[in-house]
UniProtKB/TrEMBL annotation:
Gene3D superfamilies according to UniProt: RraB-like
Domain Regulator of ribonuclease activity B: 5-105
Name under which the protein is recorded: Ribonuclease E inhibitor RraB
Pfam families linked: RraB
InterPro entries on file: RraB-like_sf, RraB_dom
């Protein structure tokens, strides 16, 4: 399988090269950053009360005065699915004065 030559495509190609089966459901975690704890908690509450089926965790970032909202979603990590979900989280984060900070995949051992 080939992917577009952009950040998401490169990550997916590396995952595929590492032997990860991208045709199966995986836990994909999308990261959002906020300057204010209230904004982070407001976004987390919004997602928890939505039909997004995402698990949300709010915690302080390693950077002082920055808050993380990590959103785990079970999904097939196709390029199209990743881009669509990342755009959805970016729009939500902006609504709550934050921004999307990428994504990653958790692997079960």
């Amino acid at each position: 399988m080939t992917f577009p030559n952009d950040e998401n495509g490169i990550v997916l190609a590396e995952m595929q090269d590492a032997g990860i089966d991208l045709s199966k459901l995986l836990t994909v975690e999308f990261f959002q950053l906020f300057e204010h704890e209230k904004d982070a908690k407001d976004m987390a509450k919004f997602i928890s009360n939505s039909d997004m089926n995402a698990t949300v965790n709010v915690h302080p970032d390693q950077t002082p005065n920055v808050w993380d909202v990590d959103c785990k979603v079970e999904m097939i990590p196709s390029y199209e699915n990743i881009v669509a979900m990342e755009e959805k989280f970016e729009q939500l984060a902006q609504k709550f004065n934050g921004f999307n900070d990428g994504w990653g995949v958790q692997q079960d051992d």
